[in-house]
């Protein structure tokens, strides 16, 4: 559409019906290079969930148009890669990338209900960390998307029994995701959504300093100073030296 993301077939695949769908797990061989030919990323078997923004947006968008067994060349503007910030030390700001991608396999994602406690924690943490990456890139909408996916994983029903330690760890990951979600929503001035996220944290941990601070900040931004002051005072009482 805008000419900033282009895909060309180098080696044909097994047919249009073998293209992966959103929500499926794919495994690709991938090599990314700068315009001068410098290789900045290479993997012989990179696995990710299509549509979850687990990888470069250029790859996530284009893999849906790659057939199993196909090798494709993707030329992507910085907008779909590492953006205005780049990636220190090897990818300068505003760098276009060329990706050579071979789709090795596409299959249905794991059933969340059948994940063990450790598998669920690891998967949720991977999505949360991806959200943190987008937050650092100042792409707050994609950050929100990743945190939402992590929360869906944590809150999904399960047919497996978890140990008390795993339950406690899942709750910790949930609280981190909700706090990060609130921070992202604040950046976009989505005050009602941020307030909801803070309240969910405080249901689990009434003394959570980040949630108290952000809730007070949201209320202040909305002009609800009478409500904001005691909440901010409570946060200050918990950590008097916190700037």
UniProtKB/TrEMBL annotation:
TPR repeats lie at residues 209-242. Pfam families: FKBP_C, TPR_2. Keywords: Acetylation, Cytoplasm, Cytoskeleton, Isomerase, Methylation, Microtubule, Mitochondrion, Nucleus, Phosphoprotein, Repeat, Rotamase, TPR repeat. It catalyses: [protein]-peptidylproline (omega=180) = [protein]-peptidylproline (omega=0). GO terms for cellular component: cytosol; endomembrane system; membrane; microtubule; mitochondrial envelope; nucleus. It is found in: Cytoplasm, Cytoskeleton; Cytoplasm, Cytosol; Mitochondrion; Nucleus. The keyword Isomerase applies. Signal peptide: none annotated. It comes from the Eukaryota. Its EC number is 5.2.1.8. Residues 23-107 form the PPIase FKBP-type domain. GO terms for biological process: negative regulation of apoptotic process. GO terms for molecular function: peptidyl-prolyl cis-trans isomerase activity; protein folding chaperone. This is peptidylprolyl isomerase. The gene is Fkbp8_1.
């Amino acid at each position: 559409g805008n000419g900033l993301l282009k895909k060309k077939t180098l080696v044909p695949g097994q047919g249009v019906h073998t293209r992966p769908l959103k929500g499926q797990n794919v495994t690709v061989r991938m090599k990314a290079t700068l315009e001068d030919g410098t290789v900045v990323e290479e993997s012989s078997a990179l696995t990710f969930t299509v549509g979850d923004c687990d990888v470069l947006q250029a790859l996530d968008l284009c893999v849906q148009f790659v057939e199993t067994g196909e090798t494709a060349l993707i030329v992507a503007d910085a907008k779909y890669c590492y953006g205005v910030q780049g990636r220190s030390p090897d990818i300068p700001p505003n760098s276009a990338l060329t990706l050579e991608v071979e789709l090795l396999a596409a299959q249905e994602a794991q059933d969340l209900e059948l994940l063990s406690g450790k598998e669920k924690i690891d998967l949720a943490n991977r999505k949360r960390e991806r959200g943190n990456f987008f937050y650092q890139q100042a792409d707050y909408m994609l950050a929100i998307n990743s945190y939402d996916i992590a929360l869906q994983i944590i809150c999904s029903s399960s047919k497996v029994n978890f140990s008390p330690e795993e339950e406690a760890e899942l709750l910790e990951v949930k609280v981190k995701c909700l706090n990060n979600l609130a921070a992202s929503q604040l950046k976009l001035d989505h005050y009602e959504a941020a307030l909801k996220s803070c309240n969910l944290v405080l249901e689990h941990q009434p003394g959570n300093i980040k949630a108290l601070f952000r809730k007070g900040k949201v209320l202040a931004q909305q002009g609800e100073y009478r409500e904001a002051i005691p909440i901010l005072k409570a946060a200050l009482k918990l950590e008097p030296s916190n700037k």
